[in-house]
Amino acid sequence: MNLSPALRATGTYPFVKLERAKRRLAAQGVDLIDFGKGDPMEATDPAIRQALVDALEERLGYPLAEGLPELRAAVAQWCGRRFGVELSPEEEIVPTYGSKEAIFLLAQVVIDRDSDKRLVLTTEPGYPVPDRGAAFAGADVEQLPLSERNGFLPDLDAVGDDTWERVAIVWINYPNNPTGAVAPLDFLARLAQRSREHDFLVAADEAYTELWFDEPPHSALEVREHGNVAAFNTLSKRSSMTGYRSGFVAADAELIDALKQFGPSVGTAPQEFVQRASIVAWGDETHVERVRDIYRRKRDVLLPVLQSKGIRVAGSVATMYLWLEVPGDESSEEFAARLLERGLIVSPGSFFGPAGEGYWRMALVATEEECRRAAAILEEIL
Fold first, then answer.
1. What does the DSSP 8-state code read for residue 270?
2. pLDDT of 104 above 80
3. Least C-beta-crowded within 10 Å: which of 74, 232, 235, 331?
């Protein structure tokens, strides 16, 4: 059977490998503590769950691609409160089935594969979905490395004008997975200005804007007057709602119209009962503050032992992740394999691209008690 060349080129999704290793060790009776995948284990707030239950009607039809007007209004109000931006609920917001599918599918909407302007710039180490979505859309893809010496920001000045002229989309992700770095407002403004100069779209994956430890991060929406900006956000991390699959895209009316036109072809709107629960989630900050406090406590359990063992923390000022330097001469996969044999599941930096080598990532999704057990194991083996 013939398969898509883009599918063959992508290879196995890195975390599939991790899941296979987990199943193997679990079958051997190893007690596992999972810091691998960024899937929150915290309980979804009861008010959100109740809103979903209350919206379960005897019959529910297909959800409209444009989403419920009440949900669009709730998102616009949240963006106004959080980032001080004014968005039109009717013209500049569309709900999405989480953010992953929307991120993957964006290139299908934006890229003209017959044009010379079909280059998509992504960053690495990073989330592989923008690259894969661009490849399936027939785009050319180039990765900009994120180095620690540059604060895990792409070096915009290292990109030549001839490259900028071929760019259709630049993907950024701040707060960043996996590094935990944040983007200063002046960086976002400079990138937005270039998008206007060279006529490309800045696509900002902002799934982690609400998980921070000291200062709330900025959004690319705050610089939308400088250029062409689309922000993708989700309730998955903010409200521990990964299984609900509920997010949104905020952008100018032209792109939102295109996404609404594209949506019915692939059916990516959340179910109406999920949208009703999402309205409650976007309208409440108390549960988000509790979530941030939970991650902060778990971080405070692990950092002392890591620092006492000389494990250097890089980035890690936001998100649910610790981005850590690999000690000694081991590769990131060798180091992660050594921890795995003792029951600690972490992600090697190489999973996220070549620039991730030399680092490893801990997702703070285990319970606080499990973090204490993990700290004792790390104290013993590092």
1. P
2. yes
3. 331
Residues 174, 178, 181, 182, Cα dihedral to 10°? 10
Q: Hey, what domains does the chain have and what are their CATH numbers?
A: 5-43+286-381 (3.90.1150.10), 60-282 (3.40.640.10)
Tokens representing 145 are 């490395």
Q: Quick one: average pLDDT of 22-40?
A: 87
- Rounded to 5 degrees, what angle do the CA atoms 48, 49, 54 make? 100
List Cα–Cα distances, 211 to 218, 235, 283, 294, 358, in angstroms. Answer: 12, 11, 17, 10, 25
pLDDT computed for residue 17 by the predictor: 72
Distance from C-alpha of 207 to C-alpha of 217, rounded to nearest angstrom? 11
pLDDT at residue number 172: 98
Do you know the residue count of the chain? 382
* Paired residues of 318 in beta bridges: 212
Q: Which helix (H) or strand (E) holds 102?
A: helix 100-110
CB 128 within 8 A of CB 15: no
Per-residue model confidence as pLDDT tens digits over 267-290: 778 999 999 999 999 999 999 999
For residues 179-202, average pLDDT: 98
Q: Please give the share of the chain, as a percent, with pLDDT higher than 70.
A: 98
Pick the closest to residue 272 from 52, 49, 46 (CA basis): 52
Is residue 265 predicted with pLDDT exceeding 80? yes
